[in-house]
């Protein structure tokens, strides 16, 4: 029987009581779905690093996005997360928990740079960029 569940500021009729439940992830702690505050903090760290690197070399504003993308593409497959993710205790994995590989970070980063897919979420708080790449951002 479906019941109303309240989380992330929304009431749903899906029967899920927390983000990630239908995917088999725990409610809290290590391995749970990363929440908005940590995600925003991580992206600010990564974007801020790109901004500082770009300013140090005197490059234009478009180079900030290129540097941001490079940061994502280098660190997602090697450290399971960008420097911002790791600083905020997050890690990126495939839905089955395995290594993300090489193509998933490329797809995810291209969609993240576009911004729109990253701000459209499902009930599990996965952005369209993560859904397209088959990844999930978890607490480490």
From TrEMBL:
<protein>
    <submittedName>
        <fullName>RDD family protein</fullName>
    </submittedName>
</protein>
<dbReference type="InterPro" id="IPR016795">
    <property type="entry name" value="UCP021697"/>
</dbReference>
<feature type="domain" description="RDD">
    <location>
        <begin position="54"/>
        <end position="134"/>
    </location>
</feature>
<dbReference type="Pfam" id="PF06271">
    <property type="entry name" value="RDD"/>
</dbReference>
<keyword id="KW-1133">Transmembrane helix</keyword>
<keyword id="KW-0472">Membrane</keyword>
<keyword id="KW-1003">Cell membrane</keyword>
<dbReference type="InterPro" id="IPR051791">
    <property type="entry name" value="Pra-immunoreactive"/>
</dbReference>
<dbReference type="InterPro" id="IPR010432">
    <property type="entry name" value="RDD"/>
</dbReference>
<feature type="transmembrane region" description="Helical">
    <location>
        <begin position="97"/>
        <end position="121"/>
    </location>
</feature>
<keyword id="KW-0812">Transmembrane</keyword>
<feature type="transmembrane region" description="Helical">
    <location>
        <begin position="56"/>
        <end position="76"/>
    </location>
</feature>
């Amino acid at each position: 029987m479906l019941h109303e569940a309240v989380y992330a500021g929304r009431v749903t009729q899906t029967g899920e009581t927390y983000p990630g439940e239908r995917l088999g992830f725990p409610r809290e702690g290590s391995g749970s779905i990363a929440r908005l505050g940590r995600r925003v903090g991580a992206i600010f760290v990564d974007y801020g690093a790109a901004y500082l690197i770009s300013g140090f070399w005197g490059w234009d504003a478009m180079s900030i996005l290129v540097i941001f993308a490079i940061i994502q593409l280098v660190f997602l497959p090697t450290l399971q997360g960008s420097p911002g993710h790791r600083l905020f205790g997050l890690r990126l994995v495939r839905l089955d928990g395995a290594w993300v590989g090489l193509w998933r970070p490329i797809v995810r980063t291209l969609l993240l740079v576009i911004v729109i897919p990253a701000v459209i979420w499902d009930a599990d708080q996965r952005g369209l960029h993560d859904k397209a790449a088959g990844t999930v951002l978890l607490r480490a």
